[in-house]
């Protein structure tokens, strides 16, 4: 009985992944090409114009994170603009499976983003005549994936609760308020700013431990995000 239920759940999740993939490619080849061209192009341009490898790596991670985050938002926008949200009650029927399928699809995209960052930084290193170590490339890729997973986990409940545009406004406002509060506290409390700097230095010196801690945070964030998303989405009429 459990085996059959698990198989049905997996089938439903795979249907949702397939549905999201079809929604993504429906925007056309140029839309897909942007995700695979602009980060390598931009990082190589930075490398050719004399930027440091650290700044190139930061730009690659930031560019991939922002670009692939918009993919999540575009999936919800597609449903709203094309009136396809009614299909969510059919493929798959279970809303829990739909949410899990959406997360699974996004995690696969996050892994692609991590690979793209690793390749981009490696190419930039060749241009700058500063070969990048394999371990460093893996570290940058892992940081990209973990950052994107966390961002998607945070954004998901907003997207189920509001329209994509209102969700973006709420997210940007929240980031602005939190960022402003952190900057204000660091300026008002020099001890806090020193603590933040020491924490950043510790993370750079113990990258493996930091990535492991980040992974635990991501798992907890995904579990919490799924619970909140299911509560919000489950109370809506399709």
Describe this structure in words.
By secondary structure, the protein is mainly alpha-helical. The protein contains eight helices and no strands. It has helices spanning 2-25, 29-48, 53-81, 95-127, 134-161, 164-188, 190-205, 207-234. The two termini are 29 Å apart.
What structural category characterises the helix and strand content?
A: mainly alpha
Oligomer: single chain
Low-confidence parts, pLDDT < 50 over ≥5 residues?
none
Count of DSSP helices?
8
Q: Choose one word for the global shape.
A: globular
Topology order in helix (H) and strand (E) letters: HHHHHHHH
Q: C-alpha Rg, in Å?
A: 20 Å
> For the terminal residues, how far apart are their CA atoms?
29 Å
Share in helix = over 70%
Question: Got a strand count?
Answer: 0
**Which whole number gives the mean pLDDT?**
77
Biggest pleated sheet: none
Brief rundown of the structure:
The chain is an all-alpha fold.
Q: How is the topology of this model organized?
A:
Layout: H1 2-25, H2 29-48, H3 53-81, H4 95-127, H5 134-161, H6 164-188, H7 190-205, H8 207-234
Helix pairs in contact: 1-4, 2-3, 2-4, 3-4, 3-5, 4-5, 4-8, 5-6, 5-8, 6-7
């Amino acid at each position: 009985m459990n085996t059959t239920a698990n198989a049905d759940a997996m089938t439903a999740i795979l249907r949702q992944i397939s549905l999201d993939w079809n929604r993504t490619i429906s925007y056309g080849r140029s839309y897909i090409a942007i995700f695979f061209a602009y980060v390598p192009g931009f990082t190589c341009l930075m490398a050719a114009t004399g930027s440091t490898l650290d700044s190139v790596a930061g730009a690659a991670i930031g560019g991939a994170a922002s670009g692939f985050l918009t993919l999540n938002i575009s999936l919800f926008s597609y449903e709203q603009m094309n009136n396809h949200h009614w299909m969510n009650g059919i493929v798959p029927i279970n809303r829990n499976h739909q949410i899990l399928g959406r997360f699974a699809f996004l995690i696969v995209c996050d892994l692609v983003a991590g690979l793209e960052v690793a390749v981009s930084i490696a190419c930039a290193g060749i241009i700058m005549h500063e070969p990048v170590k394999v371990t460093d490339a893996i570290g940058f890729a892992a940081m990209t994936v973990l950052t994107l997973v966390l961002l998607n986990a945070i954004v998901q409940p907003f997207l189920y609760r509001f329209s994509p545009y209102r969700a973006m406004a709420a997210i940007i406002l929240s980031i602005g308020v939190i960022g402003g509060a952190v900057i204000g506290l660091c300026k008002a409390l020099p001890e806090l700013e020193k603590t933040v700097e020491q924490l950043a230095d510790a993370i750079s010196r113990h990258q493996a431990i930091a990535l492991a801690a980040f992974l635990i945070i991501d798992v907890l964030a995904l579990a919490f995000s799924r619970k909140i998303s299911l509560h919000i989405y489950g109370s809506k009429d399709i």
